[in-house]
Each structure stands twice: as C-alpha cells, then as structure tokens.
Specification:
The protein is an alpha+beta fold. It has one domain (about 5-85): ATP-grasp fold, B domain (D-amino Acid Aminotransferase, Chain A, domain 1), CATH 3.30.470. Helix content is about 20%, strand content about 30%. The protein has helices spanning about 25-30, 65-80; strands spanning about 5-10, 15-20, 35-40, 45, 60-65, 85. The protein is elongated, with a radius of gyration of 14 Å.
Length: about 90
C-alpha cells in the first residue's frame, strides 16, 4: 500500500516574538507525522502575512493512505496549533 504525503510550512497569524517551540511537541511522535520541525528559534521576531513577507516558523509532513486523508490530517494539525507569539504592533 502506498501512503501519500503532504507537507506544509506554517507562518504566524500575528507578528511578534516567538516564545517557544513547544506547540509542535504533541505531533512530533505521531505515527502519521513524518516531521514537525521548527524553523525559528524562540526569541526571534516573526512576521505575519498582513504585515509583510511572512516568516515560516515550522514545517510539517504527514503521510496517510490517500491524498485527501493527508490534506485533512494536516489541516487538523494546523487547526490545533497555537503558535506562541508575543504580539507586537510593528516587527522589523
């Protein structure tokens, strides 16, 4: 049986400073998650789409039986994540 993979890069919903990368811990050891890895270290500034070119804060890859299952699963993960950003009005 072939499993289909889906990957996704995440960006924050608000601009500010990333507090930690613990938000990924729940998914790192899930059997259908190939990886859930941070791209930004805690303490670094991040930019959301509304404020400019977004900062990719993490990347995910999942594997499921069908393309739709992979899409649905990665969307479920994204919906469950709360990226810990201390908001700022302007990030440079």
């Amino acid at each position: 049986m072939v499993n289909l993979r889906r990957d996704l890069s995440l960006f924050p919903q608000v601009s500010g400073v990333l507090e930690n990368n613990d938000y990924l811990d729940k998914w790192k050891d899930h059997p259908n998650v190939m990886y859930a890895r941070p791209l930004v270290q805690p303490g670094h500034k991040c930019v959301c789409v509304e404020d400019g070119l977004p900062t990719w804060v993490a990347e995910l890859m999942v594997s499921k039986g069908t393309a739709q299952e992979s899409i649905d699963f990665i969307n479920q993960i994204v919906a469950s994540l709360e990226i810990p950003i201390t908001p700022s009005h302007h990030v440079s």
